[in-house]
Amino acid sequence: MTPEERHRHIRELAERVAAHLVDQWPQEGAHINELEDFAERMGHSVQREVSERVLQDEAARKEGNQCPCPDCGKMATFQRYHWRTLVTAAGRQPVRRPYYLCAPCGKGHCPADRRLGLGPGHTTPTAQARLAVLSAMEPYVQVADLIFQLGLPLQLDLKSTERVAQAVGARLAAAAPVAPYGATPRPVALGFDGVMLRTWEGRKEIRVGVIYEPDREAPRTPAGEASLRKEYFATTGSRESLVAAVCARALERAAGGVGGVVAVVGDGAALDWVDLDPHLPRRVEILDFYHVMERVGEIGRAMHPGAAAAAGTWQAAMKKTLLEIGPWDLVRQLKAWQPECAAGQEVRRVQLAYFQRQQERMRYPAYLRRGFPLGSGAVEGACKHVVVDRLRGSGMRWKLPTAEPVLQLRAALLTQPRLDLRGYAASHLPPVAA
User: Fold this and answer.
1) C-alpha distances in angstroms, 394 versus 114, 214, 299, 336, 434?
2) pTM over 0.70
């Protein structure tokens, strides 16, 4: 396009916009809703006009009479122009693109489709990014209603919306976003957990991980939550792959602190600290304090059957001791306790064995001095935010290959709420039929 043609297009556009403004300008005294509807309508109109003009020009641009075939690499020859309606951020827009046919392999293609980054449903990267964000946050069937309520001009059917989200999520998983947080002098903690998901093959476990910088004084506000600098991870794949990825990132972030030590918080499940040595040689293992207090409560009730007040007093005293001294007095009292009933004897046997195994992970006064967390609430919250809130809706049942891209989208967007997904738009399209 020459500068003269460009200026002519701009003048024509300005004249059309001015005519619309004159024709539809609200009357004096119009309700605020009418004023905002008018402004929004004009904004969409200008957006559509500009988008249509620039897309038409770019889509129609020829790359010569011949260009390389993307399938066989030989030269394809220009045949004619093909019309295609694109799904853009400004709505549906028809464009014509030069079509080339490769005689050696018999396949045709429109180079403009790849140049424009078109994806499933002939969506532009911006349209894909917005559809993927909405699909990550809400069920696919609700995306169209959200688009309407938000006043977005996006128009795409349900199945194509799903294909877009799946494609963007898959590319996101294949090329992970740049890590949002670097090395820090603050304490670094991580946790692992699992969530059961209903699938067509039965109940399957989703593995979840989280890294964060604990701060006991952080307020329970959006700003306070953001100050913890959480990174979320989830996969339908193996626990080993998740552990390796989370530990590698935690070590990078802990490199700015003293000794590069990472805190690993768990609730005492058998796999909480398994196989960490190859990935996290310098770590502090912490048994979830709130899980400990549940067991302490059970012991108190067994020590003082039928005396709730006495059991509560003992539990409160033991909580203070654990936080100020550590687990040693709890283990000592369990050893000295000689319950008379069989139920009490069983509680003593189970809990004494448990706390003897776990006491090295219960040095709570030292953890508090170093700024490490005592609870596993961060990873429990990660399970809810990444998996439960989106993938465990009423009646939902998944296939693991279709759940994985959604998990990757949610984990990435929860980690970086303003992540630009256009860089992960799916740009591959099948050849155009001759």
Assistant:
1) 39, 34, 38, 50, 45
2) yes
